[in-house]
Amino acid sequence: MLAHFSHAGVAEILDNTCHFGINNFFADNGLGPADSTRLYFPADQQQMRALIARIFHDPGLRFVFSPRSSLPDILNEDGQPRYGTGYHFEPGQDDVVRAGRDGWIVSYGDVLCEALDAVTELKQAGLDVGLVNKSSLNLVDEACLAKVGKGGFVLVAESQNVHSGLGLRYGSWLLERGFHPRYARAGTHLRGDGGALEQVVQQGLDSASLIRAVKKLSG
Prior knowledge:
single chain, alpha/beta, Rossmann fold, five-stranded mixed beta sheet, globular
């Protein structure tokens, strides 16, 4: 089964404080082989196209999430679309969008663009922070996890509920493999009040809030 949920992410909690959009990991509660259910949340329209083309005929349960609102294309440092021509999506393979020496932000979906802005500004200020796009939400990329785990700190930034999102899993994956960087999570944790765009700031997921979170974590 291939299912697409188009109203996922932080902007949807204004509709209802219990909206499914901030608890997508519930879809991974089934029993069975570890890779029989796969959750995906691409970062922009380009990655969505590549992702669907790659996983369309895969076996098992496949859940693909996207926000209701549009997202900007993720760009390389040269200004070209990162997931445009020549890009091929591979399930379970995390993407290092920006390399970093001091620590990492791990993000995906509708928060990745905010995280990229934060990383860009932090690098300009002298803090060399890397950024990982983890669009395969429930699959472990061992090589990338090890790279991130050896950094000084890790901030997982996501639009999902902090009580059930990637932040809980990623920290456990690191500990299970003997990594222990300074660790923090940013995610949806408040009732949704106001308009769609206001939710990003209210939940501390805008670039300015992520910068403050990284500086606190790295200090």
